[in-house]
Design brief:
45% of the residues lie in helices and 0% in strands. The longest helix has 12 residues, at 39-50. The chain is mostly helical and 87 residues long.
């Protein structure tokens, strides 16, 4: 923790040149994720736009969550996930 104070330097606003810009803080990972659209939605939209010209080897499979599987035993979950995937 002692390295953090050495890397930070507080500069008074009066010492800045007039008209210079102060950059805002960079976005955190959480803020950045909030602005990004999920890849599955982007790909699904492109697939709808293209229609039948969409390559058959590019399949868009929905993300399988625990709520979709229910309270299945752990041994059966992987089998259920395999069944829900397109082949």
């Amino acid at each position: 923790m002692s390295a953090i104070p050495r890397t930070l330097r507080v500069v008074q606003k009066t010492s800045l040149k007039p008209g210079s810009k102060v950059l805002p803080q960079p976005l955190t990972n959480q803020n950045e994720r909030a602005f990004k659209e999920p890849l599955l939605r982007i790909m699904a939209r492109r697939q709808q736009e293209v229609g039948d010209a969409w390559p058959p080897n590019l399949r868009i499979e929905p993300h399988v969550t625990k709520t979709a599987i229910g309270r299945a035993p752990e041994e059966m979950r992987t089998q259920l996930k395999r069944l829900l995937k397109e082949r």
